[in-house]
Design a protein that fits this description.
alpha/beta, Rossmann fold, 8 helices
Amino acid sequence: MRSNKAFNLICIPFAGGSIYSFKDFHSTSDDLIRIIPVELPGRGKRVNEHLLTNIHQIVDDLFIQIEDKLDEPYAIYGHSLGSLLGYLLVKLVLEKKRSPPVHLFCSGRGGPSLSMDDERLVDLPDKVFRDKLRELGGSPDEIFQNEEMIAFFEPILRADFRAHEDYEYIDTKPFDVPITVMVGREDRITLEDVELWQCETTCRISIEEFPGGHFFIFDHASKIVEIISDTLLSKDIKNGSSLLP
């Protein structure tokens, strides 16, 4: 039985992203799914604020942004860094004894316990750092061809990478929020990496694979929104998940 209750979908961007990263979500979303992107300091509409390099400070900031929406049915979606931020945001919401999301949707990242030590980018010299960004994709070529643009975006990206790469995982009790993980088949993330998300929830995780690499989300926004919508609108809000036996 499909729910006729509207859901807020809190959308958390990837490193260097902003609220504008989810413009394609707005154009493809169901009337019963309200897309609510959050903005990290130092970019977009908050460009005049200081960048944050501590992931827990970022999560505190995100909580303030969504606090007035926690009494309505909601879910969280994040890509790459946004997946980790979404996970930590669920933890913080539970710690503050507020209503948790009915679902956590993650893409482009293995489980939170996956170490980032073997691919640390933040301390690379400028040229190598920019070459690595090109390899990852997600940034238009015009940015790399314009020195003013890359000079503007590079500090934002470095701040986000520092927050991501300095994160230290703490093994805690899994929560009762179900998780769906989406991944590009050509991404470096392995199925074993993705399955690490199972350690974080008492519910069986769902895994969705897409054609493409790390930024498959740009080519498959409508399918991602469809998966999210179908998942949320089929939920019984009072009992929206299935616990592991």
